[in-house]
Design brief:
Helix 6 crosses helix 8 (about 195-215). Among the domains are: about 35-85 and about 120-215, no CATH class; about 360-465, Sandwich (Immunoglobulin-like), CATH 2.60.40.10. The chain has helices at about 35-55, 90-110, 110-115, 120-135, 140-145, 150-175, 180-190, 195-215, 220-225, 225-235, 245-250, 260-265, 275, 300-310, 320-325, 335-355; strands spanning about 60, 65, 65-70, 75-80, 80-85, 240-245, 315-320, 360-365, 375, 380-390, 395-405, 410, 415-420, 425-430, 440-450, 455-465. Strands 8, 9, 10, 12 and 14 form a 5-stranded antiparallel beta sheet that branches. Strands 13-11-15-16 form a 4-stranded antiparallel beta sheet, with no helix packed on it. It is built from 16 helices and 16 strands. By secondary structure, it is of the alpha+beta class. A hairpin with a 6-residue loop joins strand 15 and strand 16 (about 455-465). The structure holds iron/sulfur cluster (2 copies). The site of one iron/sulfur cluster (SF4) has 14 residues, from helix 14.
Length: about 475
């Protein structure tokens, strides 16, 4: 454990009069706007997320909504493929793969997920942008906060909250639209006819978005998200994190642009506080790696712009590893990272195989509670109920049979035609022909196969029960 980076929990809520702090007396963090490479990357990540989230729900595929988790029918439709509850093991596998992917990326580059693609961060950025266009940049907002109520303040505040609520409502509607068809849902909302469960969930997610992205913001990352708590377990000395190069920056202090820091006994940090003012969690990256840091790289952009202005080399705050900061060389390929990546690749491969091999017809067998009976021909007979699901998007004709069932005869409706997605329960009986095998319980395998495409088939096992002595 000795090569892990200690992540500190530094309390940032205490007032610190000696410094300009990002968190102000109203307990809100007013970040300064800025531009730079990492901001562009982050906005691109958030833009892609918004496009996927708000756009996908409106796509149609094969006459129905392309992505829809139909709770009423327990089906998940995604671009022409339909998944039933029996397939949800695949969803579990997908979630495990996502968790391993997060572990691998965290070992490699720290909290890039939080900084660039996490919905909480992305929605918070868009809410901050709304704040900026309605109330102005950081200094104007701080001034507005302490100003007495006036018409201007009322209008600016109202505009901000109206925008926040509009985005929250759109988010709530879109989210619920993945579980109930979006078009009728949107129509109900626009005609004010939405009611019941739909209305409850749309309002619930509207409220959750407004609260999380508008008010709670970094508090969600710091106090509610478990990922922040266990990230330090995944970090090692070679993990790329956003760090301040103290050896280069200290002793920090103001100076004239043309002054030579060496002559003044200073490092490259001019103590301008810009890195603190742009930080969405209100921390000072110069205090070291902290649990509140979401890895957004805003402080890199801010500090690089200051370095440019001062004519110093960029990178006083940068992506680096603890090993590099101590004068060593970062080991990008290391056992833990290779292990996570290998497990990840194996799991992705297994999931792809499972998806490709997924039977497009499902068969479940349940045996009648009665053990056995003798039919009119004097044969021992068992009763079963077969549940068959056509998982394809076309009508299919199926044939029911028994695998290796020479000693048995299957009776009932053995030819079926099922519409796309149709589920049927078929009662059948199985009679035993052979006297030889007449004893106790024995294995029986049912099979359903497409009459035209034999590769679409499924099997299910059950037992046949006969008397021990007769
Ligand atoms: S310290 Fe830097 S990277 Fe971390 S949250 Fe603040 S601005 Fe983002
Ligand atoms: S932005 Fe750079 S120069 Fe300014 S205080 Fe932060 S680390 Fe120092």
């Amino acid at each position: 454990m000795s090569d892990r980076i200690p992540v500190q929990l530094i309390q940032t809520f205490e007032p610190a009069p000696a410094k300009i702090r990002a968190r102000t007396t109203d307990n809100l963090i007013h970040t300064r706007s800025f531009s730079g490479l990492f901001r562009t990357l982050r906005m691109s990540g958030a833009g892609l997320l918004f496009l996927l989230f708000f756009g996908t729900v409106w796509l149609d595929w094969g006459g129905r909504q392309a992505v829809l988790w139909d709770l009423a029918e327990s089906k998940f439709h995604i671009f022409g493929a339909t998944f039933w509850p029996q397939d949800f093991i695949l969803l579990s596998a997908l979630l495990i793969i996502a968790a391993f992917g997060l572990f691998a990326i965290t070992v490699f580059a720290g909290r890039v997920w939080c900084g660039y693609t996490c919905p909480q961060s992305s929605w918070t950025w868009i809410f901050m942008w709304c704040e900026k266009i309605t109330e102005g940049d950081r200094n104007q907002r701080i001034k507005l906060q302490s100003a007495p109520w006036s018409l201007d303040k009322l209008l600016r505040r109202s505009a901000k909250h109206t925008l926040w609520l509009a985005i929250s409502l759109l988010t709530g509607l879109t989210f619920v639209g993945y579980f109930t068809p979006i078009r009728p849902l949107a129509e109900e909302l626009l005609t004010l006819q939405m009611a019941g469960v739909s209305l409850f969930w749309v309002l619930f997610f509207t409220g959750a978005t407004y609260l999380n992205a508008g008010w709670l913001r970094e508090a969600v990352c710091m106090h509610m998200c478990p990922y922040a708590r266990f990230q330090s377990v995944m970090f090692d000395k070679d993990t790329l994190t956003i760090s301040y190069d103290a050896a280069r920056g200290e002793i920090r202090g103001p100076r004239k642009r043309d002054a030579n820091p060496a002559n003044l006994g200073l490092g490259d940090c001019i103590d301008c506080q810009m890195c603190v003012q742009v930080c969405p969690t209100g921390i000072d990256i110069r205090d070291g790696l902290q649990m509140e840091c979401i890895g957004c790289a805003a402080c890199i952009d801010a500090c690089d712009s200051i370095m440019d202005k001062m004519g110093y080399a960029r990178g006083l705050v940068k992506y680096t590893s603890e090993r590099q900061l101590q004068g060593g060389k970062t080991h990008l390929l290391r056992p833990r990272l290779i292990g996570y990546t290998a497990v990840l690749l194996v799991m992705i491969g297994a999931l792809v195989v499972a998806l490709v091999e997924r039977p497009m017809v499902s068969l479940d067998v349940s045996k009648d509670r009665g053990l056995f009976r003798e039919n009119s021909q004097g044969l021992i007979e068992n009763i079963y109920s077969l549940k068959i699901i056509n998982k394809t998007q076309q009508r299919q004709d199926y044939q029911l049979s028994l695998v290796d069932g020479n000693d048995f005869v299957l009776q009932g409706k053995t030819r079926l035609s099922l519409a796309p997605g149709e589920i049927v329960d078929v009662p059948v009986s199985v009679a035993m022909l052979s006297e030889r095998s007449r004893s106790g319980s024995q294995a029986l395998t049912f099979k359903v196969a497409d009459s035209d495409e034999p590769n679409i088939h499924s099997e299910a096992k059950s037992r046949f029960v006969a008397p021990m002595n007769r």
